[in-house]
Amino acid sequence: MAREKTKIKKIDKLTARQVTFSKRKRGLIKKAQELSVLCDADVSLIIFSATGKLHDFSSSSMEDTLTRYYGHHSNKVEKPVRPCVALEIENTNWKMLCNEVYDQAHELRQMKGEDLEGLNGEELEQLEKKLEAGLSLVIKTKEEQTWNEINKLQREEAQLIKENKQLKHEMKILDRGKLVTVNSELVNNVSIGSSSIPPLDDDSPYPPSSGVLSEAEVSDRRQPTGAFFCKQSIKY
């Protein structure tokens, strides 16, 4: 039974496409190496991934191979003018940045649990350690922020308690001041009431009074002085 031919088409799933690219790339480079060794051929391979990352292989020198290539096709294709050194450096830096961005993005996807199909046991263990270390830092930072917030609330509470005590102390002082003012007013009123009663002479026969006279005292004061002495002598 003939083997059914697999139809070649673009892989829709991004993760599966990246895994397939990684596997097929290694296989292609391996085939190029084998061809170079078995047939003593000068083989060069240039691959750009979908993200722009460069992958190349050359059995000798890539520059020499390209020079031979352009020399072989000089009658058809003009030999490219060698760009200036600054442009070459800029192009090299750009490629390095592209590779770095790709590697960082790929590592980030792996830390999110994506693109793990091409990793072996050791690589998965290293990824697990990175995740554990990152999680520990996240937990530590969260705990520090929580304790800082608790300390801030405690300081605010202590400040409120202090202000409350100070307010109570000031209210007590105000209450005492009001009480002293009321007592002073009462004393002044009593003094004014006492001063309205005419003072008695030292030779007055009437005893000092608090300002309120009984009926007997009123009657005695209405009598003449001689009658008062008579009454006193009769009592004795």
Automatic annotation (TrEMBL):
GO MF entries: DNA-binding transcription factor activity, RNA polymerase II-specific; protein dimerization activity; RNA polymerase II cis-regulatory region sequence-specific DNA binding
Gene Ontology annotations of biological process type: positive regulation of transcription by RNA polymerase II; regulation of transcription by RNA polymerase II
Region (Disordered): 192-224
Pfam families linked: K-box, SRF-TF
High-level lineage: Eukaryota, Viridiplantae, Streptophyta, Embryophyta, Tracheophyta
Chief site of localization: nucleus
Keyword DNA-binding attributed: yes
UniProt KW keywords: Coiled coil, DNA-binding, Nucleus, Transcription, Transcription regulation
Compartment annotation: Nucleus
A cellular component term, taken from the record's GO annotations: nucleus
Domain K-box residues, every copy: 87-177
Coiled coil: 124-170
Domain MADS-box: 1-61
InterPro entries attached to this UniProt entry: MADS-box/MEF2_TF, MEF2-like_N, TF_Kbox, TF_MADSbox, TF_MADSbox_sf
Protein name per UniProt: Uncharacterized protein
UniProt keyword annotation of Chaperone present: no
SMART domains in alphabetical order: MADS
